[in-house]
TrEMBL record:
The protein's name: Vancomycin resistance protein YoaR, contains peptidoglycan-binding and VanW domains
Lineage of the organism: Bacteria, Bacillati, Bacillota, Bacilli, Bacillales
Cited InterPro entries: Glycopeptide_resist_protein (IPR052913), Vancomycin_resist_VanW (IPR007391), YoaR-like_PG-bd (IPR022029)
Domain YoaR-like putative peptidoglycan binding: 47-110
Length: 304
């Protein structure tokens, strides 16, 4: 009888220990709690952690903590908008705290350890690389086509303020992303395999073509560029750069000794793209023919 009572008492105390909680706080506020029993492998005399459960838990918890850093940018007036530091979970420190909770067999409360993630582009860097314009190109479009004009403006904004570091390659498709209705892109004329049709995002090739001429004029290394299967009216012959999410991309490499800053905007039927860098940039500009200032005629389903 005495042995039975001791056994029941032991099991009760052991169960209480196994079910003790770990409360995790972030900036002083509780954000999650877990019990020891959730992560223990049963049928072992000594505590053994279920690694698969822990890995899944830490992935989800890290996503909850994660805050993406924000690069510094220039607003429409050229004023610097400071960047923001991001945060992520310090996984190694958290693991040490978590394992201590498991093996100490008592409830615990810990503050989630975090690591700062500094933005790639801070105010100081941006101030340094906006000083010298090394390339510029302007193309013209007909604002009467509202859908095409809208797509042009969206894609121009997507590449605006993008910084390309020395030795790095810029990909138009990667930076702009997939052109979808969810992102606000509209159906507009585009050229596909020599035929003119209507597709989501029609018009963005004018932005990629304007960018190509701007960076080519600056002397950047063009890595990948394809021309349309039909002539387009917004750039001189052979000076276009067609892009498609499932097809061609336009890419260039920053072969200079300083970062490059892309400034891109639309204004009154013009696509204006400027390339900036620091005063210490070592570059050799190229001669690139200007686009015609004559407003392109609206072609019925025949230009992108």
């Amino acid at each position: 009888m005495k042995i039975t009572c001791l056994t029941i008492l032991y099991l009760f105390l052991n169960q209480s220990v196994m079910n003790s909680e770990l409360v995790v706080t972030y900036q002083g506020e509780p954000i999650t709690s877990v019990s020891r029993a959730e992560f223990m492998v049963p049928m072992f005399d000594e505590p053994v952690i279920d690694e698969d459960k822990y890995i899944q838990f830490i992935k989800e918890f890290d996503q909850e903590i994660y805050q993406e850093p924000v690069d510094a940018t220039l607003d429409k007036n050229g004023v610097i908008v400071p960047g923001q530091v991001g945060y992520k979970l310090h996984r190694q420190k958290f693991k040490e705290l978590f394992y201590a909770f498991i093996f100490k067999n008592e409830p615990a409360r810990i503050e989630a350890p975090i690591l700062k993630i500094h933005p790639n582009v801070d105010s100081e860097l941006l101030a340094n690389i906006r000083t010298q314009q090394i390339g510029q190109y302007i193309t013209y479009f007909n604002t009467n086509n509202k859908e095409r004009s809208h797509n042009i403006s969206l894609s121009a904004e997507a590449i605006n303020n993008h910084v390309v570091f020395p030795g790095k390659t810029f990909s138009f498709n990667k930076v702009v992303g997939k052109r979808t209705k969810e992102k606000g892109y509209m159906p507009a004329p585009e050229i596909v395999k020599g035929e003119v049709s209507e597709g989501i995002g029609g018009g963005i090739c004018q932005v990629s073509s304007t960018l190509f001429n701007a960076v080519d004029r600056a002397g950047a290394q063009i890595m990948q560029r394809y021309s349309h299967s039909k002539r387009v009216p917004y750039v001189p012959p052979g000076r276009d750069a067609t892009v498609s999410w499932y097809g061609p991309d336009f890419t260039f490499k920053n072969n200079f000794n300083q970062p490059l800053l892309i400034r891109s905007k639309t204004l009154g039927g013009k696509v204006i793209i400027e390339i900036y860098s620091s005063d210490m940039v070592d570059y050799t500009p190229r001669k690139v023919p200007d686009a015609s200032k004559e407003l392109p005629k609206e072609i019925q389903l025949s230009n992108n």
